[in-house]
């Protein structure tokens, strides 16, 4: 699994730095190409020569050292690697990553690279639980960075608690799962819808909903990371297009319907994460509607149900729908799954704190037509997406093991 994979191990200044020698050694034994970047404080805990000998590559510490491999080394390395793992990751490096500070070799590569990043936090438990550290970790996870651990137990400072770096074998296993996951959807084509459609009333007003698009964007990102060629059909949002994803912008439910149906025959999976307006104004005024002091009635006409239409048309495609509910979550979701003929429905109660529209996190259940149900705890939307990708790989018939 690691053969030919190019891994950058970033080492920062914590006592757990000595354990990273084992991570590097294991990765090398599994035939990975390992590069190492250390912060200055990390070199106080473990000698660069040790990690150079284990990785069989020069260790980078200073930004302005004589180039060892290529010119503008931090950029060349940033482009060269398949993944970065920062282990141990101190509170300090997490802060620097969160604000995008680049003041040494490692932090500069972390800013310059587009490779996926893992961090294995390691620090005293009070530092770990400090709101600043927790906020930084939440922000980093929101950007797609994955945390390995930390573990709980005895700490070098003499206390007990969370903040111990995960064991080297666990770090290596997380990377192994990542590389397995990268292959899961290779050769598959995915279409994801996201955001809330807007149904114009006149040139300045529309009927909309509270969807931020974050769930759909997160799903598009993880599908793409899992190797699928991914198209994102998006209603208006403020979100950046995930790297490598092709985005098509639409505004209304009818535009989304046309965009999705035109591509349905080319794709293997559709994830309908968009909040599609069920109705649109019967007429769209050409000029701004003026007030006249009396009551107004708005006539609405139904929009097509995109997912239900796909459910009728599908041949071999996998269909994934969402059920955003405010009551009777599971029963309503179950009905939608049957009515729309989908392979998996993601049910979420949008009234719960930490779930649904606008929130960076979500609390969802996956429901399958065979009656299977998976209830996930509250987690970041990218993590929900990663769970969804695992299930999707299973639906494609892949043997997914932990
Ligand atoms: N959906 C769709 N086209 C619509 C409405 C919804 O494709 N016109 C999709 C959504 O993207 C979602 C699923 O259908 O994947 C369920 O959407 P939801 O708004 O929860 O349900 P509705 O079908 O609108 O049903 P209701 O309004 O009765 O809750």
Q: Any chance you could write out the topology, listing elements then pairs?
A:
Layout: E1 6-11, H1 20-29, E2 33-38, H2 42-45, H3 48-55, E3 59-60, H4 73-80, E4 83-89, H5 91-99, H6 105-112, E5 117-121, H7 125-129, H8 131-142, E6 146-147, E7 151-154, E8 160-164, H9 168-184, E9 189-194, E10 199-202, E11 205-207, H10 214-225, E12 229-234, E13 246-249, H11 253-263, E14 269-272, E15 279-281, E16 300-302, H12 306-313, E17 318-325, H13 329-340, E18 344-349, E19 361-362, E20 364-367, E21 373-375, E22 379-380, H14 381-395
Parallel strand pairs: 1-2, 1-4, 2-3, 4-5, 5-6, 9-12, 9-14, 12-13, 14-17, 17-18
Antiparallel strand pairs: 7-8, 10-11, 15-16, 18-20, 19-22, 20-21
Helix pairs in contact: 1-3, 1-9, 4-6, 5-8, 10-14
Cytidine-5'-triphosphate (CTP) binds at residues 253, 272, 274, 276, 278, 303, 305-307, 321-324, 336.
């Amino acid at each position: 699994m690691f053969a030919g994979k190019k891994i950058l191990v970033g080492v920062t200044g914590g006592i757990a730095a000595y354990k990273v020698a084992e991570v590097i050694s294991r990765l090398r034994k599994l035939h990975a190409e390992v590069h190492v970047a250390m912060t200055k404080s990390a070199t106080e805990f473990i000698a660069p020569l040790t990690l150079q000998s284990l990785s069989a590559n020069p260790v980078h510490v200073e930004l302005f050292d004589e180039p060892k491999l290529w010119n503008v080394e931090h950029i060349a390395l940033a482009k060269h690697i398949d993944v970065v793992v920062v282990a141990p990751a101190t509170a300090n490096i997490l802060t620097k990553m969160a604000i995008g500070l680049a003041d040494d070799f490692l932090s500069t590569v972390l800013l310059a690279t587009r490779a996926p990043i893992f961090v294995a936090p390691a620090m005293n438990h009070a530092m770990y639980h400090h709101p600043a550290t927790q906020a930084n970790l939440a922000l980093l996870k929101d950007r797609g960075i994955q945390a390995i651990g930390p573990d709980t137990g005895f700490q070098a400072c003499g206390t007990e608690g969370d903040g111990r770096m995960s064991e080297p074998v666990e770090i290596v296993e997380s990377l192994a799962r990542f590389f397995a996951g990268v292959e899961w959807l290779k050769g598959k084509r995915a279409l994801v819808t996201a955001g809330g459609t807007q149904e114009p009333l006149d040139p300045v007003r529309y009927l909309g909903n509270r969807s931020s698009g974050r769930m759909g964007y997160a799903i598009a990102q993880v599908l793409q990371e899992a190797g699928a060629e991914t198209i994102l059909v998006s209603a208006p949002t403020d979100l950046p297009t995930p790297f490598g994803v092709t985005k098509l912008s639409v505004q209304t439910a009818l535009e989304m319907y046309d965009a999705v149906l035109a591509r349905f025959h080319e794709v293997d999976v559709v994830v309908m994460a968009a909040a599609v307006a069920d109705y649109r104004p019967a007429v769209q005024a050409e000029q701004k509607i003026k007030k006249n002091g009396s009551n107004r009635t708005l006539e609405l006409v139904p929009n097509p149900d995109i997912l239900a239409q796909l459910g009728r048309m599908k041949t071999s495609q996998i269909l994934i729908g969402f059920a955003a509910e405010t009551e009777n979550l599971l029963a309503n979701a179950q009905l939608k799954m049957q009515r729309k003929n989908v392979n998996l429905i993601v049910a979420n109660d949008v009234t719960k704190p930490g779930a649904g529209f606008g929130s960076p996190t979500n609390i969802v259940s996956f429901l399958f037509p065979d009656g299977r149900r998976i209830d996930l705890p509250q987690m970041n939307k990218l993590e929900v997406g990663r769970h969804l990708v695992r299930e999707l790989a299973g639906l494609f018939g892949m043997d997914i093991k932990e």
